[in-house]
Amino acid sequence: MMNDFITAIPKGLAAFTATNLDDILILILFFSQVNGIFRRRHIVSGQYLGFAALVFASLPSFFGTVLFPRPWIGLLGLVPIAIGVNRLLNSGEEETEEELSEQSETSWVTNFLSPQTYSVAAVTFANGGDNIGIYVPLFASATWESLLAILAVFFSMVGVWCYAAYCLTCLPGVAQTLTRYGNQLVPFVLLGLGVLILIDSHTLEDRGLAVLALVISCMGLIHLLRLAKATSSKALLEKIPALYPSVKADEN
To answer: From the record, what ranges are coiled-coil (predicted)?
Structure first.
């Protein structure tokens, strides 16, 4: 039993590193976007939440079943695409929201349940097709002792990954580059990530799933365009008193 526990540790380290090398790049980009409304705690909580969902989706293999076929998992590639499009459409509103957000502090529980946390978790889970593909056979061949060791290694390494990504963003050269180009780069990275997930999971090779992905994309785009239009109209109405102070004076 103890031998299974010990031998599972390097196995867990190898599996985590092999499946999460690309995640550290995404984490670096996330940490470069930290501001008044998007905090480091959102990134760490979201990374843990998304990774826990990947582990949960892979665990049924330990009991001899598989939860989802990989092409269906590939549909999650639409999540980073939606987030990327939303950032492109609402890039001008981030500064105003940041100024408003800095006026109040929220608890850890509130931050864990925030949309920012779920956005990071969604990207982490959507980028985990390879993770599930490797974790399923890994868990299927594990004993209870080795499974506990692997899970302990996995969740410890999530914290190491987050810390390493944060330290990289603190390097002067990396920090200056990401500060200058990060806001413009992140939406396109998310769009590319979503497309790669769809292709790598062979989702688009299934006609039914390809049509479903197209329908979901169109519905999501329409929704995001409506939100962007409503947000821009609200911002314009709020600016009118400042642009025409005489109007406000007449009303008084």
So the answer is: none
Sign of CA dihedral 220, 226, 228, 231: negative
Would you call 180 exposed, middle or buried from its count of C-beta atoms within 10 A (0-12, 13-18, 19+)?
exposed
Cα 209 from Cα 222, distance rounded (Å):
20
Closest listed residue to residue 117, CA positions, set 196, 24, 57, 37: 37
**CA-CA distance, 41 to 31, in Å (whole number)?**
10
Query: Are the C-beta atoms of 135 and 55 separated by less than 8 Å?
Result: yes
Q: What are 83's two structure tokens?
A: 């987030």
- The two tokens of residue 89 are 């459409």
Q: What is the pLDDT of residues 174-185, one digit of tens each?
A: 666 665 666 677
Distance CA 163, CA 84 (A): 24
Cβ atoms < 10 Å from Cβ of 247: 10
